[in-house]
Amino acid sequence: MTDTEIEVLTRAHRLFAGDTSRATLDAGTAPHRDLLRGAGGLNGGVAQASYVLAADRGRQRLQAAARTDADAADVIDRAHRDRAEARELTGSVVEEARADASPGPMTPMAQREAMRRRAARLRAQRAHVVSARLKARRHATALRALRYGLAHHRFPGPPATGRAAVAVRAALSRLGRPYVWGATGPDRFDCSGLVQWAYAQAGVQLGRTTYQQINDGIPVPRSLVRPGDLVFPHAGHVQMAIGNNLVVEAPYSGASVRISRLGSNIAIRRPL
């Protein structure tokens, strides 16, 4: 052990300092949701159809915001757990270095062994930091993928429901995983493998290849696309719509599962 080694190892350990308690996000929407549910249930003699529709849309917005809060809290909670784990791992390396304080015999063999242990500790500490940063990037990507959908008070379309919602959440949970041609998950995917795996989590069986999936379900015009729909920018590639004119996809070799913009010249299929 040397003072320089301890300083370097401790600096890495301090990257993970801070509170790691569970995050709690609550938009406080329950009372407003109940009020809007009651307003939407009024009969036509009391509330005009347009008011009923507006109340129902407001209720859906609040429900979507609450779901987004829950999803964000879950991502943040996982990030806190990962940071706590990294703090423990890097701290153990620092303690190991401090315990290796005795100079020992000054023989060439002893000196080589001491240098080997120092190098091993530095490599281990670097690996812990690199792993933590990779996880942090995945969490940041997942947070950026969350949308409240309230900009300009627009309500572009129905949210994902039922099996489509399960498939969308499953696909988004794989953000950052590498593209590997022919891979079908759960940690590596090609484009059709990601879509097939995501829908399998919802109990829906799709074809294995893009050329099979382009015949699954029913065709849908772009103006009616909704989360969970299969999007084909060309015959050899498939994406999954996630709302707000975005898709999740495993794009190509060397890339990873990511979120992209919905294209203009596309074919769309809706699994049944």
How does this model look, in words?
- This protein has 272 residues and is of the alpha+beta class.
- It folds into two domains: 3-145; 157-270, endopeptidase fold (from Nostoc punctiforme).
- It is built from seven helices and six strands; from the N terminus they run H-H-H-H-H-H-H-E-E-E-E-E-E.
- A hairpin with an 8-residue loop joins strand 4 (246-249) and strand 5 (258-261).
- The termini are far apart.
- Mean pLDDT is 82; it is low at 40-50 and 150-157.
Structural class: alpha+beta
Percentage of β-strand residues = 5-15%
How many separate domains?
A: 2
Helix content: 40-55%
Largest beta sheet, briefly?
6 strands, antiparallel
The total of beta strands comes to: 6
What's the mean pLDDT score? 82
Rg calculated over all Cα atoms: 25 Å
Morphology:
elongated
Instruction: Return residue spans where pLDDT drops below 50 for at least 5 consecutive residues.
Output: 40-50, 150-157
Report the order of strands and helices: HHHHHHHEEEEEE
Distance between the termini: 63 Å
Biggest sheet strand line-up: 1-6-2-3-4-5
The number of helical elements comes to 7
Domain NlpC/P60: 161-272
Pfam families: NLPC_P60
Protein name: NlpC/P60 domain-containing protein
Family: Belongs to the peptidase C40 family.
